[in-house]
Structures are given as structure tokens and as C-alpha cells.
Amino acid sequence: MSNAATTTGRAPSVYVPSAEALATVLAPGDRPARPSALGASLTFGWRALLKIKHVPEQLFDVTAFPIIMVLMFTYLFGGALADSPRAYLQFFLPGIMVTSVVMITMYTGIGLNTDIEKGIFDRFRTLPVWRPAALVGMIFGDVLRYVLAAVVILGVGLVLGFRPDGGLMGVAAGIGLLVIFSFAFSWVWTFFGLVLRSEKSVMGVSMMVLFPLTFLSNVFVEPSTMPGWLQAFVKANPITHLVAAVRAAMAGESDATNTMWLLLWSAGFVVVFGTLTMYRYNRR
Amino acid sequence: MNKRTTGPAIEAEGLTRSFGKTRALAGMDLQVPAGTVYGLLGPNGAGKTTAVRVLATLLRPDGGRARVFGHDVVAEADKVRARVSLTGQYASIDEDLTGVENLVLLARLLGLRKPAARERAEQLLAAFGLTEAGDRQVKKYSGGMRRRIDIAASILNTPDLLFLDEPTTGLDPRSRNQVWEIVRAVVSHGTTVLLTTQYLDEADQLAGRIAVVDHGRVIAEGTPGELKSSVGSGTVHLRLRDAAQRSDAEKVLQAALGVPVQLEADPLALTARVVGEGNDLAATEQAARALADLSRAGIVVDDFSLGQPSLDEVFLALTDHPAVPADERDEELEAAR
């Protein structure tokens, strides 16, 4: 790591504002046309990529964390729940992929909260661009992180013996569904990132939501072994639909019912939490 | 002088805004003419930042209304945004990104294509003496450089109105002078600048008109000259060689200036406020005469200074309470989010 001193290393030559130089930049030019909604969002997405470039440490949570999750649960439960870790993995890998990626979505809220804390959003909010662009762009950047995490988990799975029947297409379709859901689910966290006062409280709320949501599902075991009231919850849980759909896709089958539910849930998250987020974002 | 705009840049009437129990704005009225630097002067917690945030469309007022170039800041926020820029008290720049990246990002968001955005960024960096630092992350910049890149980002689109919220707080004198030069250049090219500051000196240097803000209200308004003469043009500080001469000096000064003279705790020191009102002579002229009278009376003066009234003195004169920095600002910022 470079020496991250707080100020410049060498003494810079003294800056003397020159009237001519300032005159050239202050001459009012033609105002360019306002960028399109997509253009502005992509530009904000580019900002997210630049941040990854400058602070690559932030990829730790999408690489190391998923690897640990896969290894830990495969060997912890594999022997007990299936004949062997390898056998369990055929069932479990799509589920742990969903769990890890959905858990990573909470960093969207934490990142937004930090950005606002630092003041940069004051500038974004005074720009005459499509209002949701800053947030959409931020989530675009996060989508890249989701894909990366999914690929890392898939890699670890393949090494450990996961063999998806769906082949490349099936796996790609599964990851695609997961990314669609995660994009939609991120809007829950942008809302909390705006409403809650500190990074810590965002983290706290995220954990409180994510743990029950991911564990009380069909990720780890078949719901048929659970008591009836719990089965009812598991059945309604969007994560269950997502896992079922991803599993089917990776196995080379298609699960139209669960895929439909998952897309409905995704649309619902965007509509409800996207609206709430923009309401909070505009009204402060 | 300003062809881009006619009419006032800002008109605000009775703006109010509360954060919990704190009334940050308690009925603020403002009239800012276009093409000038307008100073909002007041201590921390006076409501300056809240006023700027409302006018820059970042915060909705609870009551009252404000128009920027004729556009309502709430109903026509987008039209206002197209014409204003804000340099906040805290970095409105991404510290993780380099100087170039920050400017290119914002230029692209304003609609420039990539090559044009790049060119504009290079131009701005050159004009602000940051070419060399362009490829470094902003978090590695010094305080003065940070301010400059922040202002550079704010004039990317040559706004018609630029908000500068305490642009020199925390800067060393040299960096402060650089910022002042930049502000003068910006306004000479037709941009209206609304500047908040805690320093009378700064408002005096830059602003054509000043509004003194206290408890969310404008308590005095005028040109720097008008404000100062309402308060007194300054304070004379004297230090004598011999403490025994102090009572004589007091009499001489009182006669020369026609104001009460204060004896300081230091047995050698005296101070007196030079009042502009009811006296045609400039403060310096009065002080010079007083000094001559002292020397004629055989009183030896070791040290003499004529200072501008401090913000404290302005406040004392206008409100009968000193400009105590309230701890409201943090609350305000906290609640503003």
C-alpha cells in the first residue's frame, strides 16, 4: 500500500490564480443537452467502478466472504444432511449463492449512508439530472459486485465437485435471475440508507432482516422437515422462490411458478422501496 | 454587466425551517441582486447553512417562499438546479476519486461527451493550479487544494448563481487569498455568488452587500460601509509607555473622539470605539487626530492600532448579545439529512 499521507508529499509550487486562465474556464459556453436517464445512471455506475479501482479492498466482501460461506456450510452440514459434502453441494450450492449475494446487497445501503455523510450527495442532488440516476448508478456498480460474488462461489463449488446439469446456459440463467432479484432488493437498503442515521444502524437493521430471510428458507434443508407454521413462512419467503428458480435453472429445468413469483417480488421491491427511496431522497 | 440575467438572483420571503426544537430559519427575507457577491454573515448556528440548503433546493422550507432567477425553489426545483451550483462546507467531491475523475464525472453528468468532458477537466485543473495533482486521489490533497477542486467542480457549468458555504473556514491565509481571487474572477464573469461567512473581514473584502444573520433571521442588511458605520468604523487600541499617564490619555482621547474610553485590565492599555455616525470624519482621520493630540499632550504611545469592528462587535451592537457560536450547527446538519 502506498504511503497514504493526509497531505501532499512534496511541497507544490505556490498557486497564483491567474485572471486569464480563470477567464477561459469562466467564459459561458453553450449548455450541453441534459444527459438521458440511462446515460446519467451509467455515468454514476462508472463512478462506482472507479471507486472499486481505487479501493479494491472493498471487494473483500464479495470474494472472501462467499468462499468462507460455501466451505463452512458444505462441510458443516454436508455429512449430516446428505451422504457427503459432495452430494450435499449439488443441492446446496445454488442456495448458498443466493444467501451470500443477497447478504451482500446490504452494502448498498451502507455505501449510500457513507456517501451522504461525506457530503458528495449534496452536489449530486443539485445537478439537473434524472433524480434516481445517482442511486440507480450506484446499484449498477453493485450488480457487478453481485456477479463477481456469484462467479466466485460457482468457482469454489466447481472445485469442490458441484456439477450443474444445466451446463453453462443453465448456470448463466440462474445467476441472471439472482442478479435481477438482488438489483430489486437493493432498493430496500437504499431506503434504509437514507432513513437511518448511521452506518452502524443500517448494518444492524440489515442483519435483522437478512438472517431470518435467508435462513428461514429452502437454502439449507427441504422445508418438508419443518413445523407447519414455519413451512408457511418459508413458502411465502421470496428467497425460497428465488432459490427454487435458481436451482431449477442450474439443473437445466425450468420452474415457471417460482420464477414468476420471484419476478413479481422483484417488481414489488422496485415499486415499493424505489418509490419510498425517491420520496426520501427528494424530501429532506 | 450581466447579460445572462435580469432581475434579482434570489428573492426569499419569510423562510422558516425547524429541526426538532431548533428553529434554524425563523422567517428569513433576502433580496440578492444578480451579478454581485452577496454575503450572509453570522456565527455558527445562525441559520446560514440551512438558508443555503433551502435556496440550493437541497432542503424544503417549512414555510415562506423563495425564488431563484424567478423560479420557485420547491415547485420548479429542476429549473433552479440548471442554473446554480453549490460548494458546501464539507467536501462535495468524491475523495476516493482523482481530481480529473471527479471533474470528468460531473462534466459528463452535465451532458458533455467524453472528449469534451476530459478537455473541460484539464482546462479547469490548469486554471486552478491542479494540473500536477490531477491524477492523485482527492483525499491526498491539502485543504487549500481541496477547496479549489471543489470550486472548480462548481463552475464546470458556469452557473448563474454559485453558493459558497464558508469557503475559507479552516484555510491558511494564503489559501484563503487564493479563494478570494477566484471568487472575484467568478463574479466578474457575471456569476452571482452567495457567500456565507463568519468573518466580517471576508464579507467586507468580497461582498457588495451583506445580510447579518442571527437566530434564523436577517437582523441587518446593507453595503459593508453602511453596516460598519452603523456599528462604528472600528476600535482604537493604545498602549502607553507609562501607566501613570493613562488617566491623562483617557481625557485626551475622550475629548478627541467624543466617545467613552475603556481602561483595559493591562494598566498600560486603553481602547475606544470610533463612531462613524454624527461625525463626518473617517475613522482613520479621527484616530490620526487623537494620536496627534496625545503626542501634543506629551503622552508617549508605544503601540497603536485601528481595527475594524470584529464580528463580535457588530453583533454586540446589533443584538446586544455577542456572537456566541451556538452548538446548533451540528444539530442542524444532523437533522438536515
Automatic annotation (TrEMBL), chain A:
Main localization category: membrane
Molecular function as annotated in GO: ABC-type transporter activity
Keyword Membrane among UniProt keywords: yes
Chain ranges of the ABC transmembrane type-2 domain: 57-284
GO cellular component terms, semicolon-separated: ATP-binding cassette (ABC) transporter complex
UniProt-listed PANTHER family: NODULATION PROTEIN J
Protein name as annotated: Transport permease protein
From TrEMBL, chain B:
GO cellular component, one term: plasma membrane
Top-level taxon of the source organism: Bacteria
Membrane-topology annotation of the record: Peripheral membrane protein
Location within or outside the cell: Cell membrane
Pfam family, one: ABC_tran
Any one GO MF annotation of this record: ATP hydrolysis activity
Domain ABC transporter: 10-240
Alphabetic keyword roster: Antibiotic resistance, ATP-binding, Cell membrane, Membrane, Nucleotide-binding, Translocase, Transport
UniProt keyword annotation of Cytoplasm present: no
UniProt xrefs under NCBIfam families: drrA
Name assigned to this protein: ATP-binding cassette domain-containing protein
Lineage of the organism: Bacteria, Bacillati, Actinomycetota, Actinomycetes, Micromonosporales
